[in-house]
Design a protein that fits this description.
The chain contains 4 helices and 4 strands, in the order βαβαβαβα.
């Protein structure tokens, strides 16, 4: 986990489904946050990448680099993609 520097905005990881992920990430990007996103299909995050988001191909990766992670997931997602 990274150490939060109080003089800069935190790195935010966004893991979500469809519209909620795009809404969270777009809002954060427009406010100058460094946003890292995950999606199984890179093309579905292309609009966020063009706005400055960093794409990750696994759901674990944004959490490894972010100071905080926002999620909006279904139960099915947790049981299939994030086995604990």
């Amino acid at each position: 986990m990274t150490t939060l520097n109080v003089n800069k905005k935190p790195i935010v990881g966004v893991i979500g489904r469809r519209i909620m992920k795009k809404s969270f990430a777009s809002s954060l990007l427009s406010r100058g946050y460094n946003v890292h996103v995950y999606n199984r299909t890179k093309e579905k995050t292309q609009s966020l990448i063009e706005k400055g988001a960093v794409f990750h191909s696994t759901s674990r990766d944004p959490a490894l680099v972010a100071d905080l992670v926002m999620t909006s997931l279904t139960f099915l997602f947790f049981t299939v993609f994030l086995p604990f």
